[in-house]
Amino acid sequence: MKKKVLKRVPCARPVVPSSADEKLKLDAEKIVWFYPTERSYIPELPVLRSDDGSLWKEGVGFLISRLYDKDFNRSGISVRTVSRKADDLAFYRNRLDYLQIDIRADERFKSNRPTYAFLSLLESEVTAGELADSSACRIVGTVVEYHRWESFHFKTNRLYPLWEEITRKRRTIDDRGVNVSTTYTTTDLAEIISKARTPGDPNYIMDCGKLKPLTLEQQSIVITALHETKNTEMYLGFLVSLATSARTQTAFTLRANSFTKEIADAQEFVRIHTGQGTNVDTKRNKKHYLDIPAWLYKKIHCYVHSERYLNRSEKCQLPDSKKYVFYTTQGNPYYTSANDELSEKMEGSAVRVFMIEKLFPTISRLGHSFRFKFHDLRATYCSNRLEEGLNCVECGETTLDAVMRGLQDAMGHSDIRTTYRYLDYRNLNPIIGKTNSEWTGKLLMDIMIALELEDGLR
To answer: What pTM does this model have?
Structure first.
C-alpha cells in the first residue's frame, strides 16, 4: 500500500431526482453529474493504492471525508494533516499484509483481529526503538478514526469489537483557575500504546523524532557555511530557528508585516504570536509565540525593505498584508501556510534541497563532515537555553523547576516530560554541557560578526 498525491482532482455532485419514486427507478449509468463551477476540484488529494495499482476505495473515501463534507464544502482539516493520515493508514495496511491478516477479519481471538494484531507489532517496534512512541500513538488514533468512519458509513456490524471503549476522568484547571473534573472516552488500544516507550538513546533526544543538538563548534561552522552560500533567505531562516526554536513551517511562514516597524535600541526581543489566527503555522495549529532577538529582528526588518526581497515578493499572488518573509527567486514561498490558497503548495522541500545541494557541500569544503536535520536546530536552541538556565541554578538565581517550566513554555511542549528529555540528554552527554556553556557569550557574538559580513549579499 502506497500513498500518492493527486493534483486538481475534479469533483461533481449527482443530480438526484426530487421524488422517491424516481429515485427507485434511477439507473446508475444514467446519473447526471453536475460541476457547479470550473473551479470545482480538489487541489490536492492523497490516495492509497495497492501494489497492483488498485485504489483502496474505503481508505480514499475516508481521506476525502476528512477534507470535504458531502456537499464538497471544505473542512477545517489541512491537506498536510490528511496526507499524514494517509501515511498512517498505509503503514497500518502494510503491517497487516506483513502479518497476513485481512483488515475485514472478524475473529473471536483478539490476537487475530486486525487492530490488536497491529497493536502488538506496533508495541514491539516502539520498544525496539524502530518507531517513536509519539508516532505510534498518532497512528493508533488514525486507525481508530478510520474504523469509526467505516462503521458509520457502511453500517458494518462486527461480531467481535476492534477495541474496547473506556471512560476516564481527569482533573484540569479551567479559564477561571478553578480545578474541575472532566470525563472523556478513550480505547484500550490508545491506553496500551501510550504505555509503550522508545528506549533511551544517549546520542539522541526523542522529541517528534530523533533529534541531536549541535555542539557549539558545529553551530559556529553552520553559521559560517550559511554565510558562504550567499543565500540570505536560508541564512536568516536558519537563524530564526536557532534563536527561537521555530520549526520549519513556523520559520518559513512568518509574515513580512511582522517586521515592518522599527524598534528601540534598548529593546531586547520582539514577540511574534504564531498558530491559530495568526497566519503563521505551528504544529497542530497550536497557539504559541516566537521571541525574536532584537539583533535578528533588525536584520529581517532591513531585509524585507531590500530590493532583493521586493523583487521576489512581488511575484507572489498574495495581498501585501499576507506576504511571507522568505521567497525563492521564482516568488514561491518555501513553505505554504495552510491558510493560504496558492496554486503551488510548498512543504519545505526547497529547504531540504538547499541543505543537501548547498549547505552540506559547503560544510565539507570547510573541512567538516557532519550533517543534521533542520529540526535539530530546534533541539539545539533548547539545549542552549537549558545550559543557560543551569548556570543560573548553580549561581542560586533560580530553581531547576523554574528553568524547566520556562523552557517548556518556550518550546511549546504540552508534556514537561518531553522537556526533561533534554536534561537527561545533557547529563548523559557531559561534552554537550561543556561546549554549550559559553553559548550566550560566544555564539551570539559569532552570529553578529557573520551578519555584519552579510551586507553585500542583498
So the answer is: 0.62
